[in-house]
Amino acid sequence: MQSTIPYLDSHTGGEPTRLIEQMPFDLGGGTVAEQLARLRAEHDDLRTLALNEPRGSDVLVGACLVQPADPSCRFGVIFFNNVGYLGMCGHGTIGVVAALAYRGRLAPGMVRIETPVGVVEATLHPTDGAGHPNRVSVRNVPAYRHLKHVPVEIDGRIVHGDVAWGGNWFFLCHDHGLTVDAEHIEPLTDFAWRLRAAYSALGLTGTDGAVIDHVELFGPTPTADSRSFVLCPGRAYDRSPCGTGTSAKLACLLADGTIAAGQTWRQESVIGSIFDGRVEVSDGQVVPTITGEAWMMAEGRLLVDARDPFGVGIRSCG
Ligand code: PYC
Fold it and tell me: Which of 60, 214, 244, 249 to mutate to test ligand 1, by most ligand atoms within 8 A of the CB atom?
């Protein structure tokens, strides 16, 4: 009657990742993208039971380990949130690597991981003098800017944004006029959510009609190159600087000539955590690498009672 699913929780710069190491069912093999399609169509309950209330919360990002199809990869990973699935997840990859190291399944060094949108390379660094045990660099899938300086009307004025890919789709806006700091989470959330509605109403998409489901609002900070507020698809804000969002930002910075290949860009989150980012240009593509730290927080077992009316989560949450 009751099933149990072991999990490991970490956070990366404040943003949590709940890892399910052992899938409770067979996804039938194939590429990680194909397994994601099956997970979404046939087993979406796993996502909602692991993340949604009453067991979880909107802030949680989930990751499940699956078999990679690419023989050069040691792991396959599917990331998900309170409303659906992600292409890639930077903070989540750092969290997954930390969790696998905690389990003794990874030692310092590089590991290739297949995600639904391509292969990433994660490097677990040796514990440093500052005592950071889980410092991880993620060489992401290639990033690019799709559209530049798109005008969008909101609150009777025009703001502008770039549309860029960094493993997920982002609308990146600077001239929003808001203060980007932890004291202004509510107005930032409200504005970013309405901005998403405003550019969606214009029919703005990524390539091939892809939904632009993440919004980034940038502001200045004395402690890094830039501070960002990132609103995720389910209306939770990213406590980390967002690995895929930083990748999208780096692609725009390189396209504008603001940074050069190899230069470090320090991206701060709205709560003050930092990712170091840099890009390389390989075969004409912009390949970002993001470095950050994760901390292990909990390990446990999800208990799912088939008689519980909310055992697979409250679907209207998020
Ligand atoms: O770090 O890429 C990221 C991410 C995406 C959504 C939440 N975090």
Answer: 244
Give 257-279 pLDDT, tens digit per residue: 999 999 999 999 999 999 999 99
The full DSSP string for the chain is -EEEEEEEEEEETTEEEEEE-S-SS----S-HHHHHHHHHHH-HHHHHHHHSTTTS-TT-EEEEEE--SSTT-SEEEEEE-SSSB-S--HHHHHHHHHHHHHTTS--SEEEEEEETTEEEEEEEPPP-TT--TTEEEEE-S-BEEEEEEEEEEETTEEEEEEEEESSSEEEEESTT----SGGGHHHHHHHHHHHHHHHHHTT--SGGG----EEEEEE--SSSSEEEEEE-TTSPBPSS--HHHHHHHHHHHHHHTSS-TT--EEEEETTS-EEEEEEEEETTEEEEEEEEEEEEEEEEEEEEETT-TTTT--TT--
> For residue 128, what pLDDT is reported?
74
- Nearest-atom number in ligand 1 for the CA of 166 is 2
Please tell me the pTM assigned to this model: 0.97
Distance 38 CA to ligand 1 centre (A): 22
Residues with CB under 6 A from ligand 1: 15, 61, 86, 89-91, 168, 232, 238, 240, 242-244
For ligand 1, atom 5: residue with the closest CA: 89
pLDDT of amino acid 318 = 46
What amino acid positions are annotated as catalytic residues?
89, 242
Residues (pLDDT < 70) of the chain are 1, 316-318
Hey, whose CA ends up nearest to atom 8 of ligand 1?
242
